[in-house]
Amino acid sequence: MIDEVLASGTRLKIADAVSVRPRTLTELSDLTGISVQGVIKHLKRLTQLGLVDERKAPASASKARRVYVSRSPLVGDYSAKDLAIVKLSKVARPEKRRHSQNKDLESLAADLLFQRRRIRDEAKRLGKIIDRLVEEEELLNGALEAGSFTNDERLILQTLLTEETIEDGVQVLSKYYGIEDRRSIDKALMKARHSVGK
To answer: Is residue 36 within 8 Å of 25, Cβ to Cβ?
Structure first.
């Protein structure tokens, strides 16, 4: 199942995006750079795999009828921005005498072993960071589900808290959901602050 998601970069982007917070078709189309029809095909397959659910958009969302959410926060594209894989280019080397080739091979094997250990250690460290991120996302979603928030407030808070800044979240709410009433946004934020203060 997961191989089918990883095999498609677009499907992985969609799975990653909806694992963070609900998304509209238009938003997923903008994120992936493919048509809404293309997004629908990928969403259909992700739904068949049991990874994505379609839900009715909150009443305050005038621009969207449906939103898409992840059933599991464990699917995510963690290779996009901060992880870089470097491939060393082949450099022409002068011919060496045969007796020095064994020494070169031993040195190369030692370097290779060192690099493998380093990659393994970095992968473990990255794995721990990803686990912590998934845990924090689950905590955030759990807190929003457990709180006495309406569906509209939950959507507003998920969007605001998962964007880079509150203003970015406000722009997303306006562009993709048609939620432009700043009072309802401020009210949701105040309610969240009050519930955290308890």
So the answer is: yes
Residue 138 to residue 74: CA distance in whole angstroms: 10
Beta strand ranges found along 133-188 (DSSP E): none
Rg (CA), the chain: 23
Query: How would residue 176 be classed by pLDDT, with cut points 50, 70 and 90?
Result: very high
Mind listing the pLDDT tens digit for each residue in 6-38? Answer: 677 788 889 888 888 899 999 999 999 999 999
The crossing angle, in degrees rounded to 10, of helices 151-162 and 182-197 is 80
**Cα 192 from Cα 137, distance rounded (Å):** 16
pTM, full prediction: 0.62
Contacts of 161 (CB under 8 A, 6+ apart): 140, 169
Q: Which residue has the tokens 């473990």?
A: 124
Closest by alpha carbon to 4, among 52, 37, 36?
52
Which domains, and CATH codes, for the chain? 2-81+127-197 (1.10.10.10)
Tokens for 91, please give them.
């450099």
pLDDT of res. 121: 83
